[in-house]
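Appendix C reproduces, verbatim, an entry submitted by the partner laboratory led by Prof. M.T., so that reviewers can inspect both the input and the predicted structure.
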Amino acid sequence: ADMVRSLIDKYSQGGWLPIFPCWNSYTAAMIGDHCISVIGDAIRKDIKGFDVQKAYEAMRKNAFHEPESFEEYKNGKGRRALNSYLKYGYIPLEDSVKEAFHTCEQVSRTLEYAYDDYVLAQVAGKLNKKEDYNILMKRAMNYRNVIDPRTGYAQGRHADGSFLKDDNAFRFVRFITEGVPAHYTWYVPQDVRGLMNLMGGKDKFISKLDSMFSEHRYWHGNEPCHQVPYLFNYAAQPWKTQRQVSDIRHTEYDNTPGGLSGNDDAGQMSAWYVFSAMGFYPVCPGDPYYVIGSPAFEKMTIHLENGKDFIVKAHGVSEENIYIQSATLDGRKFENSYITHKQILEGGILEFVMGNIPNKNWATKKENCPPSILKQRVYN
């Protein structure tokens, strides 16, 4: 709530939510519009202590308008290349995004804006803003416009609708931010199952996901990859998430001054570790659930602000025993590879029995996988 109030104050004093606030000022340094992610997640989770209507006004302005003054836009107010994004449903390669610290990077911007639009759509639905909800949910699907059906990977696209023909999925390119297309292809937390279908189905999705690790393409040192190891859960192979999360914890972090695998970037490198050590991770902030990984501790307690405790126990956990054999929540059999925010706030005990061999039957039914898009209300 404190952070959200500060962001609303920035909007009240400067006229826009910041894209990347720094030096007590607006900047055009990074590419997403993730104040929407932070504020929207707080609203979805019913965090109190700030003006929700004012927050929605601020988020909506960023998502629907560009500054009238070029000087304001140049100084970092508003989304970069918003007009192109709204016109084409993606940012074409012809828009070089000149008024930005990171010029070009059109595909990464498209993917990040589509996710932000999804989060804002959820807030619009919660506030019963029907027209905005419908528009934003349609925009949340804009990620499909930059996934090349020929390869199943993110690809640059021209204004005439044609994709680049280059085989560039595994090399650095101008239309991707600080990475390669294979990294950013997975930046669809709002519709993982839709991405799976776009790739040609579950088998092709799993094959590409496996290759991120078998071919050493995964890059933990850059945060847009951080949800990738958790995506096996959506494909009903949670044991692979358990293996990769545990491996990343042990290989990408150590207890030295250089113990992080990359720039901590506002705490995300550390936050990934803390969540993953607890045993779950918010793949899609803005949706009120967390995807289960592999807990690191025999017992971990969250002291909640409502006075309750949520406890995670992992019986037999060790460096070898990283695989979940079975689970219970408050003594009842638990078969889901995700847990809701509401279940955590209710307090209680989530218990895992751990082992050194994957249990390929736990949490593998379709109904046990994380929701890709939670059931949406439809406004006519």
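The mean pLDDT is 95. Additional entries are available on request from the coordinating office.
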